[in-house]
Design brief:
Layout lengths: L4 E2 L3 E5 L13 E7 L5 E2 L7 E5 L8 E9 L5 E11 L18
Parallel strand pairs: 1-7
Antiparallel strand pairs: 2-5, 3-6, 4-5, 6-7
Length: 104
Amino acid sequence: MIKGIVLGATGTFQIGFVPAENFIPLKSGPNVSVDDASATLTQPDANDDFTIQVPANDTAAGVNVTVTGVNDQGATVMHTFNVPYLPAPPPPPQSVTDFSLNQL
């Protein structure tokens, strides 16, 4: 399930295969690309995990993540997923340390 990435944070993802079990390994890949030039992407590791880091000031609504590979038959397998960007949560509540005054 794709939940999204909070602006200013890093999302971690794991590539799954269809079928999920008893499949012939890929000839090459999987490789990952993103369409947001501001996002920092790592390529999949041995567990097929990768990360996307999003700057806090990114103005895009999300990122399209494309996973590609070549199967045992030589066919290119490709799928694009949309990952939304989520607003940063508000800061935690703080104790009152002083007062302000407004004239009405």
